[in-house]
Amino acid sequence: MKHYVTNFVRKLLIQSKNNSLITVIVLVASVIFTVNSCSDEQTIMPRLTTLKANPDEITATSAILRGRITYLGNAKIIEYGIELSKSPLFSPSDTNCIKSAPDTGVFAIEFKDLEPSTLYYFKAYVIINTAQYYSQNVEKFTTKSQ
After folding, report:
1. What's the CATH number of domain 47-142, 1.10.10.10, 3.40.430.10, 2.60.40.10, 3.30.450.20?
2. How far apart are CA 68 and CA 97, in angstroms?
3. DSSP string of 7-25?
4. pLDDT, tens digit, 9 for 90 and up, residues 51-70
5. Beta partners for 48?
6. How far is CA 87 from the centre of its chain?
């Protein structure tokens, strides 16, 4: 892009030939400002955290799990929720979500049809376009026995 700006400035200088140096300076400043302001905006990712499970919200077959979005970033979030798995590697996993743009703050997702006396791992996530972005921390809980 600098190459184009340099050639543009040269053409202006040749065309103006001392007629109006001030006009050339103003035009050059305008072009430089335009080039700088049209640069690609860097995507700033959201910040989210997985919150610890509340024992009072865990039964033998269900659990209410929470995440917190502390910063939305500048990318369009199309879905957010909790990913749940019996494996710390999250393979296989199940997700439960809210399909809308979030606000910052705590959100709660309910999971049903869980197995009694089973250890589960979970983490908060958001989907931006087609990419899934996860919280840095993973939490776990064990469902109650029947």
Report:
1. 2.60.40.10
2. 13
3. HHHHHHHHHHTTS-HHHHH
4. 999 999 999 999 999 999 99
5. 69
6. 24
Instruction: Identify the burial level of 23 via C-beta atoms within 10 angstroms of its C-beta, where 0-12 means exposed, 13-18 middle and 19 or more buried.
Output: exposed
Count how many residues are written for the chain.
146
Which is nearest to 134 in space by CA: 142, 125, 143?
125
CA atoms within a 13 Å half-sphere pointing along the CA-CB vector of 12: 18
Question: What's the whole-model pTM score?
Answer: 0.70
DSSP string, 85-127: ESSTT--S-EEEEE-SPPPSEEEEEEE-SPPTT-EEEEEEEEE
